[in-house]
Design goal:
Ubiquitin-like (UB roll)
Length: about 70
């Protein structure tokens, strides 16, 4: 499946079907992240229910600690 993530074209396995599975794929599931899917910001509670499809556009922002 081909997705557009943060402006880049990314290919992921077809087994990645939800936003939470996508975050797991990129090892971001344990980090605080904000996800926008096709210009709509998603509630964290909906990540496991929200399906992704070929051609979707996502913006993923995660927070990094430091000083």
């Amino acid at each position: 499946m081909e997705l557009f993530i943060n402006g880049d074209t990314v290919t992921v396995q077809d087994t990645v079907q939800t936003v939470v599975e996508l975050l797991e794929h990129f090892e971001l599931d344990q980090k605080k992240a904000i996800v926008e899917l096709n210009a709509t910001i998603l509630d964290k509670e909906s990540y496991s229910k929200t399906k992704i499809q070929d051609g979707d556009r996502l913006e993923i922002v995660h927070f990094v600690g430091g000083g």
